[in-house]
Structure formats: structure tokens, C-alpha cells
Write a structure and sequence with these properties.
- The complex is a heterodimer of chains A (about 280) and B (about 160).
- The longest helix of chain A is centred in the middle third of the chain and has 40 residues, at about 155-195.
- Chain A has helices spanning about 15-50, 50-55, 55-95, 105-140, 145-150, 155-195, 200-210, 210-240, 245-275.
- Helices cover about 85% and strands about 0% of the residues of chain A.
- The radius of gyration of chain A is 24 Å and the shape is globular.
- Chain A has 9 helices and no strands.
- Chain A has one domain.
- In chain A, helix 6 (about 155-195) crosses helix 8 and helix 8 (about 210-240) packs antiparallel against helix 9.
- With about 160 residues, chain B is of the alpha/beta class.
- Chain B folds into 2 domains: about 1-30; about 40-145, no CATH class.
- In chain B, a hairpin with a 4-residue loop joins strand 3 and strand 4 (about 80-85).
- Chain B is elongated.
- Classes of the chains: A mainly alpha (about 280), B alpha/beta (about 160).
- The interface between A and B is medium-sized, with 31 and 26 residues.
Chain lengths: ~280, ~160
């Protein structure tokens, strides 16, 4: 990394080069901090739009229709198959210890506590998060956001906020549907196909699943994921460089960052909720 | 037209979500069965509660009649004090006895309550006198080993 003043053929002295490396490091850190700051400011601005968004609920509703209803199919089909697989695998392992009657409990706890919120958040990233990023990135590339700014329409309130709140509302609902459909899938495989006693399937489940400790904590998880995933998708779209390449990069970053954030947050939330 | 159609679909979406949450709460977690019923509290002292936990079932003849409400240690008598919340529908004689049992070989522990013969019933706040502690596997094994060692006919001495 040569400084513009130095002649190319002569290598600058070691001290200069070390200073340059240090400066590059410092600049990278500063850029990172600036990004975090921008993200935090955008997040706070989005949170402040709760009341104005409710006043213009038509916009939120249309986004909810797009993010929620259209994700319902992939979420329920995935939930059904995850339930099938949990039923089969759980039965295989449990019957070794002669406790296949606990199959309902196993399926329900794994779905409600972990798989429901996490897998539906990951699917939501792929199904809805990418489209949010691409849409907003293209709006930015087409200078639609700047045009709105020129007309004194705040693009954060008009474009980002309805999508944000729609995503926050949609993901917990989708996660609940995922868990419920998954339990039915486990029931189909366990009770209907394999022949576990339905009384013990439901009975053990009802005795072992706690509404507050298991179901409510799962819902809290999915709400947190809803905020995280939707915000990351919107932020990446809003900050995308306004070129075709920039939009494609931003979409990729949405999937990578949001998936990692979901999995990392899941570990933290699980440690916090279920450690005792 | 377009708008009202969207309204219908979004309403349906939220409705499906509500049904799913209700299904999880009522069918999977059985929210309404025990926790909303009126209960009365009795208590008992145990030498050893083993692995008994809060919220464990109290069963009589295998039927759940209440839950363990609180477990504390009483340092006056050096015993565990267990508070039980029994369902209001069920009354038990004053000399009923409590036993800590295990469901299955490796299952969780619960309290069994066996009805006595007294004419008077347990009132809220009463103490159940007759209790039987949890079976601790280590104690059983050591008892077995000691009885083996004490038994002269079984000792591996030379004839």
C-alpha cells in the first residue's frame, strides 16, 4: 500500500510501511465502528416509527400479506417434514431404551424450544429477507429513495418501517405455525404410522411441556429473531451500493449475516432461558 | 377490491397464527387442566426427598390430585419441608400418608398420597404426619452389601 507521494520503484523505509499498515488497520476499525453506529441509528429510527406505522396500517398490512401469507406454504411444508423426521428419529432412539411413549414429549420440546423459532427464522431469511434486501437495494439503485427524499417523504418511514413491522409480526406467527404443524407431523409418523399409543403420546407431552417455560420462551425467541432478521435485511438493502453488483452482494450478505445472527442469538437465548 | 382482498388474506394469516398458538398452549402444554383449579395447601416433612422437584405431581391411586408447591429445608428438625397444593375437589383423611415414588425405572419422581381411615379430613395448612422418604439407590446398595457381609452363611470363608 503505497502512499501517493512516494515514488514506485523505491521501497519506503520499514517504519513508513509499518505506519501504513497501522493506519489501514485503524481505518478498517473506524469504518466498522461507523457501520455499527449507522446500523444502531437506523434500528432506533425504525423502532420510533411504531406509532406512525400503526397510523398507516394499510402499508403494514400489504407487507404482512407479502411476507406472511406467501411464506406460509414453505413454512408449513417444512414444519410437516421436520415433524415427520423427528418422529422417525426420535422413535428409533427412544425405543432402544423402551421409552417410545415419550415420543410426543421429545417432538414437542424440540420443536417448541428450538426448531420452530430457529428453522422458521432461517427459512424466513431465505424467503422474505432476500426479497426485502433486493427490493430496497434496487429502489436505491434506481434513485427512488433519493427521489422520495427530494419530495420531503422520509423513505425510512414510507418504505422501511412498514416492512420492518410486518416482518416483526409475521415471524412469530410463522414459527408458531411451524411448531404446530411439526407436532402434527410427529403425530402422523409416531401414532398413525408406527403405532405409538396416542394416550401416552399426548399425555406425556401435556405433562412435560410447560406453557410459560417452553411455549412462551419459544415465542420470545421468535420475536427476537423477527426483529433481528428483518432489520438485517432492511439494513443491508438500505446500505447497498447502488449498482447491480452492490445489490447482489447485499443480498448475499443478508443471508449470511442474518443466518449467523439467528444461530448465535439462539445460543445466547437458550443459555439464558433454559440454563436453570 | 384489491385492498379488501388483502385484508381477508392477512386476517386469515393472523387467524392461523392464533390457532397455532392456541394449539401449542392447550393441546401440547395443557394450559387449562391443572393450573387454573382452586387448591388448598398441606405440608409434610421428609427425611430425604431424593430428586423430587417443584411442580411434581401428587397422585392418589395413579390419578393426579395436586402439585408440589414449594420445597424448603427446615433447620429446626433437619428435614425437608414440602408444601403441596391439592385440588379442592379431593379431600383426604387426616391420617393419610405420603410416599415419594418414581414413575418407571428411570422416570421422574412424584408424591403418592394414600388415604387413611380417620373420620376427619385434612384441612388447609395441616401437616401430614406419616411420610416415607425417597429410595436412594446408594443407600439400598450399601444396605445390601452390609447385610451380605454380616451374613455368616454367605461369607466367602474357607470351609
Amino acid at each position: 500500500m503505497n502512499r501517493p507521494g512516494t515514488p514506485a520503484p523505491h521501497k519506503p523505509p520499514l517504519g513508513e510501511r509499518l505506519l501504513d499498515a497501522l493506519a489501514a488497520w485503524g481505518a478498517a476499525t473506524r469504518a466498522l465502528m461507523a457501520n455499527w453506529g449507522l446500523a444502531a441509528r437506523l434500528f432506533v429510527r425504525l423502532l420510533m416509527t411504531l406509532v406512525p406505522s400503526m397510523r398507516r396500517s394499510v402499508l403494514v398490512r400489504d407487507q404482512l400479506h407479502f411476507l406472511g401469507n406467501y411464506s406460509l406454504a414453505i413454512i408449513s411444508v417444512s414444519g410437516l417434514f421436520v415433524g415427520f423426521v423427528l418422529g422417525l428419529q426420535g422413535y428409533n432412539t427412544l425405543q432402544r431404551y423402551g421409552s417410545s411413549s415419550a415420543l410426543g414429549l421429545l417432538v414437542t420440546l424440540s420443536l417448541v424450544r428450538e426448531l420452530g423459532p430457529v428453522v422458521s427464522a432461517l427459512l424466513f431469511v431465505g424467503r422474505a429477507g432476500t426479497s426485502l434486501t433486493a427490493e430496497i437495494g434496487l429502489m436505491k439503485a434506481g434513485e427512488q429513495l433519493s427521489a422520495m427524499d427530494m419530495m420531503a417523504v422520509d423513505p425510512v418511514q414510507r418504505i422501511l418501517a412498514p416492512r420492518f413491522w410486518a416482518g416483526v409480526v409475521a415471524l412469530p406467527i410463522l414459527a408458531a405455525v411451524f411448531s404446530a404443524v411439526g407436532i402434527m407431523g410427529g403425530w402422523v409418523v409416531g401414532v398413525v404410522m408406527i403405532g405409538v399409543d396416542p394416550g401416552s403420546f399426548w399425555g406425556q407431552m401435556q405433562a412435560g411441556v410447560d406453557v410459560w417455560k417452553d411455549v412462551l420462551n419459544g415465542v420470545i425467541k421468535s420475536v427476537v429473531f423477527g426483529f433481528t432478521v428483518t432489520f438485517i435485511a432492511l439494513y443491508q438493502g438500505y446500505m447497498a451500493s447502488p449498482t447491480p453488483e452492490g445489490v447482489s452482494r447485499a443480498t448475499t450478505r443478508t443471508v449470511v449475516t442474518a443466518s449467523l445472527a439467528v444461530l448465535g442469538l439462539d445460543f445466547i437465548l437458550t443459555a439464558w432461558m433454559f440454563s436453570l | 377490491m384489491q385492498r379488501s382482498k388483502n385484508d381477508v388474506w392477512v386476517g386469515l394469516f393472523v387467524l392461523i397464527g392464533l390457532v397455532a398458538v392456541l394449539f401449542l398452549a392447550l393441546q401440547a402444554a395443557n394450559l387449562l387442566s391443572v393450573s387454573w383449579q382452586k387448591t388448598y395447601t398441606v405440608w409434610a416433612n421428609f427425611d430425604n426427598i431424593g430428586g423430587l422437584k417443584k411442580k411434581a405431581a401428587v397422585k392418589s391411586a395413579g390419578v393426579v390430585v395436586g402439585r408440589v408447591d414449594k420445597i424448603t429445608f427446615d433447620d429446626k428438625v433437619f428435614q425437608a419441608r414440602v408444601d403441596l397444593a391439592l385440588d379442592e375437589h379431593f379431600v383426604f383423611p387426616k391420617d393419610s400418608s405420603l410416599k415419594i415414588l418414581t414413575s418407571g425405572l428411570l422416570g421422574e419422581q412424584y408424591l403418592g398420597i394414600e388415604a387413611g381411615a380417620d373420620a376427619q379430613n385434612l384441612m388447609p395448612g395441616d401437616k401430614v404426619q406419616s411420610t416415607q422418604s425417597a429410595v436412594v439407590l446408594e443407600n439400598l446398595i450399601s444396605q445390601f452389601l452390609y447385610s451380605k457381609a454380616a451374613d455368616p452363611t454367605q461369607s466367602p470363608s474357607k470351609p
